[in-house]
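Quick start: what a row looks like.
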Amino acid sequence: MRIVSLAFMLAVAALATAAQAAGPAPLNCDSPMTQMEMTHCASRDFYAADTELNAAYRALGKMLDAHGRDLLTISKRKWIEWRNAECTFRTYGSEDGSAHRMVVSICLTELTKARTTQLKKLSSCSVDDMTCPAK
């Protein structure tokens, strides 16, 4: 199943990022040379985007009451499911290639950054906005 392979790839990418952080010299992601380096850099970018996304979720959650936080948690879980399925779909054309993990990381980063932007807007919307959860 493709979702399982995506979860596996994310776990491998997280381990690679952690191993690189503990390793000798960081890669220069401004000019990666090999596929392994490009994949690592894409994974690093996803990790950074995911960290920012989680900060946006925490900031919005602090503005909500208990019911709102529960709804945000449900939304977060469903959004992650959607994001992973969407990236599995968007990248299935590369799934047999050596660049697949990189392509998946790029997709995850793109969608994660877009969601972070949405959450930040929800955190600063006008109280007059009827679709604003943070009042």
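That is the whole record. The CA atoms of residues 9 and 83 lie 14 Å apart. The mean pLDDT is 86.
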